Description:
The complex is a heterodimer of chains A (112) and B (116). Helices cover 0% and strands 52% of the residues of chain A. With 112 residues, chain A is mostly beta strands. Chain B has 116 residues and is an all-beta fold. In chain B, the strands form two sheets. In chain B, strands 2, 4, 5, 6, 9, 10 and 11 form a seven-stranded mixed beta sheet that branches. Chain B has a four-stranded antiparallel beta sheet with strand order 1-3-8-7, with no helix packed on it. In chain B, a hairpin with a 2-residue loop joins strand 5 and strand 6 (53-56). The N and C termini of chain B lie far apart (37 Å). Classes of the chains: A mainly beta (112), B mainly beta (116). Chains A and B meet through strand 6 and strand 10 of A and strand 5 of B.
Amino acid sequence: AQSVSQHNHHVILSEAASLELGCNYSYGGTVNLFWYVQYPGQHLQLLLKYFSGDPLVKGIKGFEAEFIKSKFSFNLRKPSVQWSDTAEYFCAAYYGNNRLAFGKGNQVVVIP
Amino acid sequence: EAGVAQSPRYKIIEKRQSVAFWCNPISGHATLYWYQQILGQGPKLLIQFQNNGVVDDSQLPKDRFSAERLKGVDSTLKIQPAKLEDSAVYLCASSLGPARLNYGYTFGSGTRLTVV
């Protein structure tokens, strides 16, 4: 079945620390990959997406993600987090079947 | 541009009651989605509309859930009768077209349903 896995559901770190969230997707041929963020009390927002081309994708707010095809991974990174990055982060994959498959999410808490 | 509007924001009902949610997508967005997000899980697609036609409703529990988008704009999602396990956030999203064509989704703020 087409699925997305995210590990370390709860992440707590201090401001200025580096963040990396893992995302693995199941094989399904051509796949489009996304990272969404949900700030407390707000709706899901697109952070970045990968369709093709350069596997290192830069998104909003200093986030980036790297697509590694051989590892079926699309990990999200930010070199130095801020308190305002406290949010839930979702990785998602689109396999071309009209369905966006989401991971279970990572709850990230940044301590000032 | 205006976002995807959803109402109500919160709803508490007793089991076996019925409930309806409303969604107004971004103007011009032909594709509309309803997702269910249970606490601790990622959103799960319930139904996808392309204009006023259903594209995918394979994960919609049709014995109790129904959805319509009669004029290809607004949509309603109904649950009748509700069960305790229906407690979740119901998200509406819209896009210009299917995601495979590089059209991003825009999500609404969701309706948080609590069934007691």
